DNA sequence: TAGTAAACTTACTCGCGAGTAGATTACTGA
DNA sequence: TCAGTAATCTACTCGCGAGTAAGTTTACTA
């Protein structure tokens, strides 16, 4: 039932989605939707929260805290693109639809903030263990925010290019962000510090 | 009148914006809006097209074609953040509201594609003049897409932190993308190849 | 197998807002 | 001053969809 709602919301957006269509797609009648999930807003909110939970869960499950920061980041980035590839609807509801709806933008912002904070924390640790100058928490958060934005943009690219593998997007992100375009132009590329098991059939 | 519509659409989104409010904010009556701009959809579309035109105009005016690619990119990035800071409403309509509205997402995608193509072209030239291996047009477009996404994300950050200067965002973007996080962590930072005139009062 | 509670549906109400018909005001020229 | 017309507004219609009242079926109990 949340699946049906997520599908309809992702296609049509909050306002253009009708409760009739959601009910029909879920194979039940409208009053049942109201009985179980309350109003349309609560239903949308439930979709967002479920998707956000799944996403943050997937990311934090991947980034084992005992790994060095760079490897954690790599694992998190991989998990992120995997999630987007497997839950396209959920992704679209959160970041295409809910963001612009003032009433719900806050929930998405909260989910996003969780991710940004984690990334900022990884940066801080990477910088610390490299012995470099700490740029300060605000600057770190700004960079983390930007990295997450890059990921979101590549996620859209992934949705528009269904035959591209999540691993490709993840590698591209690490290349851009860790190596920098300047290095890429000089022909240097980023490589995973640990061997990546290729998925079967590739 | 387009200003009023842009303001209302940016606050409320397409569906939640009412033509009554737009008319009131523009200081005219509703039938006048319909007389001059047609339907609600056409009005929204007009807002998008105007904003898109202003944005692409600002960017291409900044990036003088005789400059080296890196400097063009720097100029374009600066112009972009300047635009976002000065036309917050227009930016929000395009990238927060219109993106999720299936009917209008195509127009925004078209504007975005223009920008991505320009950036991809700059990459290609930078790579060529550095004598590096050409990664192929698809890969270049993917990277350009990602860079634009990073810019969009930093634009949001800029809107949420009104006391931050567009130049700061522009520098941060170049740092991340040209230098790479790996270099940043080692304490290296990107510097503009030409001196940047500071705005007065800084 | 009648009685009853739970699960579910049909068929409505009601408000909101896009879009418009017809009245009204402001100009123009004689 | 006033006929004619252009510009603009007031006050409506009408459809759509969120939300619900009342009825109906299903499932269970004794």
What's this, in brief?
Chain A has 202 residues and is mainly α. Helix content of chain A is 74%, strand content 0%. The interface between A and B is large, with 48 and 48 residues.
**Total strands of chain A:** 0
**Unreliable segments of 5+ consecutive residues of chain A:** none
Highest CATH level, the class of chain A:
Mainly Alpha
Rg of chain A is 19 Å
Alpha-beta content class of chain A: mainly alpha
* SSE run of chain A: HHHHHHHHHH
CATH topology of chain A: Tetracycline Repressor, domain 2
What is the general shape of chain A? elongated
The portion of residues assigned to helices of chain A is over 70%
Major beta-sheet overview of chain A: none
Number of domains as seen in the coordinates of chain A? 1
Mean pLDDT of chain A: 89
Euclidean distance between termini CA atoms of chain A: 35 Å
Pfam family, one (chains A, B): TetR_N
InterPro entries (chains A, B): DesT_TetR_C, Homeodomain-like_sf, HTH-type_TetR-like_transc_reg, HTH_TetR, Tet_transcr_reg_TetR-rel_C_sf
Protein name (chains A, B): TetR/AcrR family transcriptional regulator
Organism (chains A, B): Cryptosporangium japonicum
Would you kindly provide a written description of the structure presented here, covering whatever features stand out?
The structure is a homodimer of 202-residue chains. Chain A has 202 residues and is mostly helical. Chain A has one domain (2-185): Tetracycline Repressor, domain 2 (Orthogonal Bundle). Helices cover 74% and strands 0% of the residues of chain A. The first copy, chain A, is built from ten helices and no strands. Chain A has helices at 2-12, 19-26, 30-37, 40-62, 69-86, 88-97, 102-130, 137-160, 166-179, 181-185. In chain A, helix 5 (69-86) packs parallel to helix 8 and helix 8 (137-160) runs antiparallel to helix 9. Chain A starts with a helix and ends in a 17-residue tail after the last helix. The model of chain A has no long low-confidence stretch (mean pLDDT 89). Chains A and B meet through helix 7, helix 8, helix 9 and helix 10 of A and helix 7, helix 8, helix 9 and helix 10 of B. The structure holds a DNA duplex (30 and 30 nucleotides). Chains A, B: Keywords: DNA-binding, Transcription, Transcription regulation. Chains A, B: It holds the Pfam family TetR_C_46. Chains A, B: Residues 18-37 bind DNA. Chains A, B: It comes from Cryptosporangium japonicum. Chains A, B: This is TetR/AcrR family transcriptional regulator.
